[in-house]
Amino acid sequence: MLAYVASALFVIAYLLLATGTSTESWYSPTALGFVGLALLAAHLGGASARIGGRRHR
Question: Which pLDDT does position 46 carry in this prediction?
């Protein structure tokens, strides 16, 4: 799940860079890229398995 959110943030950051939209807010392309990288690192670290994963018996 975290990987999907990270990829969505990467797409938004890419679109902001590609269109040349200048944003001076928290959602600048660099900030979105860093948040996406943090979510991807959390996903690869196994955090998404602990958040709402299925319980196996």
Answer: 82
Q: Which residues of 10-28 are buried (b: 16+ CB within 10 A; e: fewer)?
A: beebeebeeeeeeeeeeeb
> What DSSP string runs through 1-57?
-HHHHHHHHHHHHHHHHHHT----STT-HHHHHHHHHHHHHHHHTTHHHHSSPPPP-
Q: What is the pTM of this model?
A: 0.66
Closest CA to 16 of 26, 27, 3, 5: 27
Side chain identity at residue 4, one-letter code: Y
